[in-house]
Design goal:
The chain contains 1 helix and 26 strands. The chain is mainly β. The chain has a 6-stranded antiparallel sheet, with no helix packed on it. A 5-stranded mixed sheet has the order 19-13-24-25-26, with no helix packed on it.
């Protein structure tokens, strides 16, 4: 072998060792396969945008169908490839380099986050044995995507449109009404300043683990295997106030991502609150304070969630609105259902 031919052969071997082996027909060497990721809120925490976080990689598997028939038996094209965002190129690309085949179709499955329990089957897509033992783990999103592209008429970037396998459960609270009041009898003015303070909110009887499959899409779980989650617990509480027009102000108190499930009678919301009361009696003719007394009234209530919402569906957002009452006003619950991006809304109960 002459020296020039030897150099060419060595160069070809080196190039082959740095590239992924592409099965099937010849591929387009000048058309690198890259991705764009959209429509996911987060895989780390609950965010209200439709942008996939650029610092969070995802995994992809792809199957090539040379004849374009995705119902036939395809050939593995990408196997659990990690896809990361390239800030220099402003695109998502796999760790290995892949090029578009000249014909046929590519079926892509994508999953996020990259965890051992999140796998991809080239036939059934993303699968996951998912567990949420406490509220600390209820901030991680589980996402999945599927896409089919024609190799001859492919886009410049493969769109990875994520769906959410979990349900987003949000909690808001307000006071039932303004309890502060005053009245006058003769020269005496009685004033009662009453502040309602929310201390804690917990939910009980919630399924915490199950198995997700992308195809067929759904969850399987043991309905008897339930846990409790602390949604809100603050030492000084959260004061529930009214605006200057005496309208109760709705406050967000927590969000969790939980397994979609049919709720049972075990699913309850437990809340604790207290009323900070100051009663004073003033002589209006002299301005003298006749009496001034302060005290605290603790109260609690337990509300069946299933009476207001029978199930949590994946990729939907449920807002549980708590109206906290004192004295003879009963604490109530209402539920609002929206899609994850809140483009549609179904109200169950009153605001």
């Amino acid at each position: 072998m002459n020296r020039r031919l030897q150099i060419i052969v060595l160069a070809a071997i080196a190039l082959a060792s740095c590239s992924k082996s592409i099965p099937g027909p010849a591929y387009k060497a000048d058309e690198l396969l890259v991705f764009s990721a959209v429509a996911s809120h987060s895989v780390k925490s609950i965010i209200t945008t439709t942008n996939y976080p650029l610092d969070e990689p995802f995994i992809v598997e792809a199957v090539h169908y040379p004849d374009g028939n995705t119902d036939s038996e395809g050939t593995a094209f990408m196997t659990r490839e990690t896809v990361r965002y390239s800030f220099g190129e402003s695109l998502w690309r796999s760790e290995g380099e892949y090029y578009w085949p000249q014909k046929g179709k590519l079926l892509f499955y994508a999953g996020s986050p990259i965890l051992p329990q999140v796998t991809i089957n080239p036939v059934n897509g993303v699968e996951a044995d998912w567990s949420i033992p406490s509220e600390a783990e209820a901030e991680t999103d589980l996402c999945f995507a599927r896409n089919v592209e024609d190799c001859e008429m492919h886009p410049s970037m493969v769109p990875v449109v994520f769906n959410h396998a979990l349900s987003q459960i949000c909690f808001k609270a307000r006071t039932v009404r303004n309890y502060t009041h005053s009245y006058t009898e003769g020269n005496l003015v009685q004033a009662s300043i009453i502040n309602v303070v929310l201390d804690s909110v917990k939910i009980h009887g919630i399924v915490s683990k199950g198995h997700f499959t992308q195809k067929p899409r759904g969850w399987s779980y043991d309905p008897a295997d339930t846990v409790s989650y602390t949604i809100f617990n603050r030492e000084n509480g959260c004061a529930l106030k009214v605006d200057r027009y005496d309208n109760p102000e709705l406050k967000e108190i927590g969000k969790v991502l939980l397994i979609p499930q049919t709720l049972t009678e075990r699913a309850t919301l437990e809340e604790w609150h207290h009323a900070e009361v100051r009663n004073s009696l003033t002589d209006s003719s002299t301005g003298e304070i006749v009496s001034d007394m302060s005290y605290t009234i603790p109260q609690t209530s337990t509300i069946p969630i299933v009476n207001h919402c029978e199930r949590w569906i994946m990729d939907f957002k449920y807002t549980l609105r708590l109206a906290v009452g004192i004295d003879d006003d009963k604490t109530t619950l209402a539920v609002a259902v929206t899609d994850w991006t809140e483009t549609k809304e179904i109200i169950i109960g009153d605001e």
